[in-house]
Amino acid sequence: MELQTLFEKAVKESKELSSKPSNEVLLQLYSLYKQGTEGDINTEPPANPFDFVNKAKYQAWSDLKGKTKEDAMQEYVNLVEKLKD
């Protein structure tokens, strides 16, 4: 199956997991999704120093800078498969 198709399937499956992943894993899923769909981060960091959620999301995505979209999509697929087990 083509990577794009596997990725789209994994995105759908990530919303149907039997138990909610930890915040750390959710952040991993978010950053891999963003890197896989948009590539390197293209936004400014959150201006509000107390906006911890968006700061964490920004940092997680920023940490993936340089990773190819294909690698990010494959890692996302692998992570969702692991979470399904």
TrEMBL record:
The ACB domain, residue ranges: 3-85
InterPro entries in the cross-refs: Acyl-CoA-binding_prot_CS, Acyl-CoA-binding_protein, Acyl-CoA-binding_sf, FERM/acyl-CoA-bd_prot_sf
UniProt keyword Magnesium present: no
Transmembrane intervals: none
Assigned keywords, A-Z: Lipid-binding
Entry-linked Pfam families: ACBP
SUPFAM superfamilies in the record: Acyl-CoA binding protein
Stretch forming the signal peptide: none
Protein name: Acyl-CoA-binding protein
Origin species: Terrimonas rubra
